[in-house]
Specification:
This protein has six helices and no strands. It has helices spanning about 5-15, 20-30, 40-45, 50-70, 75-100, 110-115. Helix 1 crosses helix 4 (about 50-70) and helix 4 packs antiparallel against helix 5 (about 75-100). The protein is globular, with a radius of gyration of 15 Å.
Length: about 120
């Protein structure tokens, strides 16, 4: 997906998130709560904003797993794992709050990887 297509997808998602229902906001919000990121994927909502949040939540969940595995390595792993977990928690909280308010949140670094996922 090139940059122009990504921009168009984000613009259409912003337009659709202006008039989102409570269910869409709820599904987008729980996308940032660990394993619950798979719920919007199973429900298959037609809202592009929810799909973007779900993909970002899935990438965040995978990052949390990776940082947990890194945390096992003594000394350097503890530092990298801790910093990675703090990053994931902050991004999850921001994404959760933004999605409940009906806004599209493109997470730093996470959005790049989320665009590569073609599940939805």
């Amino acid at each position: 997906m090139d940059q122009k297509e990504t921009l168009e997808k984000i613009k259409s998602a912003i337009e659709t998130t202006k008039n989102t229902s409570f269910l869409s906001k709820f599904l987008a919000a729980i996308s940032y709560v660990g394993v619950f990121c798979f719920v919007p994927l199973v429900v298959k909502v037609k809202d592009e904003g929810v799909n973007i949040h779900a993909r970002q939540g899935m990438v965040l969940f995978l990052a949390e797993i990776i940082f947990t595995l890194i945390w096992v390595i003594p000394f350097i792993g503890w530092i990298v794992g801790f910093i990675g977990w703090i990053f994931c928690i902050i991004v999850s909280l921001i994404g959760f709050i933004q999605s409940l308010s009906g806004r599209l949140f493109t997470a730093p670094f996470i959005h790049y990887f989320a665009d590569k996922i073609k599940i939805i």
